[in-house]
Specification:
heterodimer, A: alpha+beta, Phosphoribosyl-aminoimidazole Synthetase, Chain A, domain 2, seven-stranded mixed β-sheet, 26 helices, 23% strand, B: alpha/beta, Rossmann fold, nine-stranded mixed β-sheet, two-stranded antiparallel ribbon, 5 helices, 26% strand
């Protein structure tokens, strides 16, 4: 009988082992156990999320893929062009080895994109770290940023946006979610499939080494505290080789001899090759002795499970590989025919022609599915009441000013420029709006289109109420796009959660999917791809549930490009939605966390109103009648105002008195609000474009400082604090 | 007139350069693959940015030994016009077509931002600019810190060969407006004969207002005007 130690190493349970024996009709040998361990891991097998993933709206009239069917999701944007996009996490590797973990995270998501024949045109990322107080946390944050910079810059793909957020729940589990966007002609999208038995299986790129063995089953599928010693499970990246792979793979993608292409990611050749066969409904034969290796003594087990980076698999028509090999030689890339697709459902693994394993695609690719609703049943969700311990209800100029100055020292509020200036955001010469606004804008050459991207998540809201948190997540990502005139058309989701086999983790996942489904239905937008990173736990703490939404929007390239910045004294300021925040809006806010050191209360969003608001702001931007537009979010109204005047060193005069509940009014993070500026002469036209949606003109752009009728703030100190950046230089 | 844009493995600014010269300016431009045997009768050679050969060993070091570089060195030594942008500048230094070295930025970090440059218009690469004009062009590099022996720097300065200096928006050239620690705020220089230019900023990324600036056009227009005169 198998020992527990071995099963633990593979993250398989005893009952799963029993099921394997049942499926095979015998005990698996070591190699086979490795294959099952990899393919039945959470990372490859989605044991805990498959049921939920099926419930998601993943298609719409212009989608070209079904969720999970390919390496990434694709959507038709017209002019015979498709956009391919996906977000993926590399959390555990980044915790163990921040630089290489983050670097190979970028490498992996980029391969998912060009595996579909698409040229990568943009990167974004969403980062979560603990407070920059300990040297360990600083080392992780620095290493991650350097890793993304070091790998991404070498590839010539612009890194156009993202976000970075600090909370102590990420103390032992930093989150690194990388998103990549690619473009391909509609009729040239590649599939990760073979066509028929006889097609050859060819490996391209790096030699296979001993790195990353058990990455999928170990690092990505267990609680982190159990795996802190798995250092060799983190791979080392070679961005130069990746760049050659991009160019070579895109060059061969147009050849008719090429049948399919697949990234060799988590669980290496095992998962890549077997998934290709599964999609093609045929069997597979691999000879491990044909795989180019770094060390001569590698075992079949190591070869099959290595997660060495910068490798791709392709399926090629029998005997028709010459032109492909010529192109690979031009790029000085190694390749080798390592097997072929065969009739039936068998997976045959040979070592120098000797059969060492015979299993089946069906057995390997149908792990058990766990019903999270059974696990979550025992979870009691005690909603915490909004607790405000300190007194903020009396109007006091000194107190208000000092709170505003303090919050402009929060790493969550200050400028993220020290991060994004390490990423090339100009290469490919399409970047119309650089990082630093609500979303980034790129043009698509030789079309009439601009594309907009944002990448966003608010884990505090998800902690308070994962369902409404998920609704807000989608609403806010889309609002970032709409605020600059774009129509949101596709989403990708990164799910970063704790242990789904515990009631709390299961509950948070289920509720998040409920929220996604409601929001996707109301906004009529599909989630075309995604990634789940579960088991983000360690030292008896779990991360706050952190869904991340990457959103894409589209608009005509005649649209006037605006951003968050007010541009001229004398312009009027308007607000769509409610101007003042509320006390309730302090729930899960930066203000609450910063001054009360807690996350509690009650969050809400009216999705129907949000939809109307987004349509209104889009119309307004497209009418060309306004000069700036900015979503009110983290830090509330007052932070949004400061960020609107900071870039051009301006001021504002608001024709209102700050009410007694100033904390909620100024710092509440109530949803569905957008601030914009305009020339007064456009007032009547703006009024008619906005028609019946709630909005008001609230003040004027001035030369400096922030005036309300009963209080004023000097802006210079706030600008200084904002531009000083993080408390520790990253 | 024809521009040849050299592509090494790891180069990534070749298509941006091609788009700027060929599509925006309408100058006939073509790629030269590093394994090609000739420069294919091109009049101007551009070595674009990127990470040739992964920048392994030292930036530009391996590319400088590429067979195509022998042809380019001969071409430059016989008066041919050569521009090295970013990694191209590093390759030109490693090939001894330009003096000095490009060391790691003094911040030890990669830096991508819009830099302001003060232009010396006394060169065939900048005759379309006004003297001391301030232009805005992106930089994107980890190793752009130009250094050389004092004797060499003195010579470059005396011969008026510093073509671009990092500056403020209003033209101050001091350490506050120096993104990488380059001596004398040097962003670009020419060789003694004036036919080879190396610069760290990316003019090909600044050829359309839509993407933030078209201040880089002047460089390509200058060499075009010069070649037409010829």
């Amino acid at each position: 009988m198998i020992n527990e130690e071995t099963l633990k190493e593979l993250a398989l349970s005893k009952s799963e082992y029993k099921l394997i024996v049942e499926r095979l009709g015998r005990e698996p040998n070591d190699l086979e156990l490795g294959l099952f361990g990899a393919l039945w891991s959470e990372h490859c097998g989605y044991k805990h999320t498959k049921k939920l993933l099926r419930s998601i709206k993943s298609t719409a009239k212009n989608t070209l893929t079904e969720a999970g069917a390919e390496n990434a999701g694709a959507i038709n944007i017209g002019s015979n062009k498709a956009i391919v996009m996906k977000i993926e996490s590399h959390n555990h590797p980044s915790a163990v080895e921040p630089y290489e973990g983050a670097a190979t995270g970028v490498g992996g998501i980029v391969r998912d994109i060009f595996a579909m024949g698409a040229r990568p045109i943009a990167l974004l990322n969403s980062l979560r770290f603990s407070n920059l107080e300990s040297s360990r946390n600083i080392q992780i944050a620095k290493g991650v940023v350097e890793g993304i910079s070091g790998y991404g810059n070498c590839l010539g793909i612009p890194n156009i946006g993202g976000e970075c957020f600090f909370d102590e729940s990420y103390e032992s589990n930093p989150l690194v979610n990388a998103m990549c966007v690619g473009i391909v002609d509609n009729d040239r999208i590649l599939s990760a499939k073979a066509e028929k038995p006889g097609d050859l299986l060819i490996i391209i790129g790096a030699e296979t080494g001993r790195d990353g063995i058990h990455g999928a089953s170990g690092l990505a599928s267990q609680n982190f505290e159990e795996t802190i010693e798995l250092r060799s499970a983190v791979q080392v990246g070679n961005p130069f080789l990746e760049k050659l792979l991009i160019e070579a793979c895109l060059e061969i993608s147009s050849l008719k001899e090429l049948v399919g292409m697949q990234d060799c990611g988590a669980a290496g050749i095992t998962s890549a090759a077997i998934e290709m066969a599964e999609r093609s409904n045929i069997g597979l034969e691999i000879d491990v002795s044909k795989v180019p290796v770094r060390e001569s003594s590698m075992t079949p087990y190591e070869i099959m499970l290595s997660e060495s980076q910068e490798r791709m698999l392709i399926a090629v028509k029998e005997n028709e590989y010459k032109n492909i090999f010529d192109i690979l030689e031009k790029w000085d890339l190694k390749c080798s025919i390592i097997g072929k697709f065969i009739d039936g459902n068998d997976v045959l693994i040979l070592n120098d022609n000797e059969l060492i394993s015979r299993t089946s695609i069906d057995a390997l690719t149908s792990p058990p599915e766990y019903d999270l609703s059974k696990i979550s049943k025992s979870y009691k969700n005690n909603k915490s009441k909004l607790s405000i311990k300190n007194k903020y209800d009396s109007f006091n100029i000194e107190t208000i000013s000092s709170h505003l100055e303090s919050i402009f020292s929060s790493n969550n509020i200050v400028s993220k420029k020290s991060i994004y200036k390490k990423y090339d955001h100009h290469v490919q010469t399409n970047t119309v709006l650089e990082p630093g606004s609500d979303s980034a804008i790129i043009r698509i050459k030789n079309t009439d289109k601009f594309l907009l991207f944002s990448c966003d998540g608010n884990s505090r809201f998800s902690l308070i109420d994962p369902k409404i948190g998920a609704e807000i997540n989608i609403a806010e990502s889309c609002r970032n796009i709409s605020a600059l005139g774009g129509e949101p058309i596709a989403l990708t989701d990164g799910l970063n959660f704790g242990d789904p086999s515990k009631p709390k983790g299961a509950f948070q996942l289920i509720e998040t999917f409920k929220g996604f489904n409601t929001a996707c239905d109301i906004f009529n937008i599909p989630i075309i791809s995604g990634n789940a990173s579960l088991f983000n736990e360690g030292h008896n703490t779990s991360i706050n549930p952190t869904p991340i939404i990457g959103a894409m929007g589209i608009m005509n390239n005649k649209t006037k490009i605006i951003n968050k910045n007010f541009i001229k004294p004398g312009h009027k300021i308007g607000v769509l939605g409610n101007f003042w925040g509320t006390n309730k809006g302090l729930s899960g806010s930066e203000f609450q966390t910063f001054f009360e050191n807690e996350i509690s209360g009650d969050i809400s969003i009216d999705l129907e109103f949000e939809k109307k608001l987004q349509s209104s702001i889009r119309n307004l931007v497209r009418s060309g009648l306004i000069e700036s537009s900015h979503d009110i979010s983290l830090g509330g109204l007052i932070v949004a105002l400061v960020l609107s005047i900071e870039k051009n060193q301006l001021g504002v005069e608001i024709e209102k008195s700050v009410p007694d509940n100033w904390a909620g009014a100024l710092f509440g993070e109530d949803q569905s609000r957008v601030i914009f500026s305009y020339d007064e002469k456009n007032f009547n036209e703006i009024k008619s474009v906005l028609n019946d949606i709630k909005w008001e003109q609230i003040g004027t752009v001035t030369e400096k400082n922030i005036y309300f009728e009963n209080i004023y703030f000097e802006s210079e100190e706030l600008f200084l604090r904002y531009n000083k950046g993080f408390s520790t230089d990253l | 007139m024809k521009i040849g844009i050299v592509v090494f493995p790891g180069t990534w600014s070749e298509s941006d350069t091609h788009y700027a010269t060929n599509d925006v300016l309408g100058i006939n431009s073509e790629y030269i693959w590093h394994k090609d045997q000739s420069l294919n009768n091109t009049d101007i050679i551009i070595l674009p940015g990127g990470f040739s050969y992964g920048d392994y060993l030292r930036t530009g070091a391996i590319a400088s030994f590429s067979p195509i570089m022998k042809k380019i060195i001969t071409f430059a030594n016989s008066g041919g016009v050569v521009i090295g942008i970013c990694n191209g500048f590093q390759i030109l230094c490693e090939s001894n077509l330009l003096p000095g070295v490009l060391m790691r930025n003094n911040s030890l970090s990669f830096v991508c931002e819009n830099s302001y440059l003060k232009v010396n218009n006394d060169s065939l690469f900048t005759n379309q600019y006004n003297q001391n004009e301030i232009i805005r062009i992106p930089i994107s590099h980890g190793e752009g810190n130009f250094q050389a022996d004092k004797k060499i720097i003195d010579e470059i300065e005396e011969q008026n060969r510093v073509i671009f200096r990092y500056s403020s928006k209003t033209g101050e050239t001091n350490l506050d407006h120096n993104p990488n620690g380059s001596i004398n705020n040097i962003a670009g220089i020419t060789n003694k004969q004036g036919n080879v230019l190396g610069l760290m900023p990316h003019p090909e990324k600044a050829c359309e207002q839509l993407i933030g600036s078209d201040d880089g056009l002047g460089i390509f227009k200058s060499i075009m005007t010069n070649s037409i005169k010829k």
